Amino acid sequence: MTNMITAAGLRKLEEEFDYLWRIERPKVVRGVSDAAAEGDRSENAEYIYGKKRLREIDKKLKHLGGRLKVLKACSLPANPKSVSFGCWVTYEDMDGAERSYQLVGPDEFDVSAGKISIDSPVGQALLGKKVDDEVFIRRPSGDLTVYITRISPKQP
Predict the structure, then answer these.
(1) Alpha-carbon distance 135 to 119, whole Å?
(2) Which of 20, 2, 21 is nearest to 70 (CA)?
(3) Kind and range of the H or E element at 92?
(4) Does residue 134 surpass a pLDDT of 90?
């Protein structure tokens, strides 16, 4: 797994960690404590749910804490000549459909927001390619051949 991340992605993970640690976890701990004070814990749904939610939060905090220790924020390319980390790449498929994606680290990918991981099959196929290159992409949903039409440091 790649340990690169954009500065915006790193900020987002740090904010999530901070929110869970300073706001969400103390709120759940108070709820569990209040539910425990009500007596019989074996049939107390609020207590059982609160303990489960606390385990989920602690697991997420442990994961985020470990990743934040090893992640390195990488600067985005100012004028990329080839597809690299952080740049936006626009490609056209054989049917003429155009798509644009930013290549990001695995901790911040979100396909619906146009961010794909450089570790993904699509990201790996695009890395290092230039405008007008034909790229063969092997995907779980089926192979695809595309033509790179634009590489940019900013979202098109």
Answers:
(1) 16
(2) 2
(3) strand 88-93
(4) yes
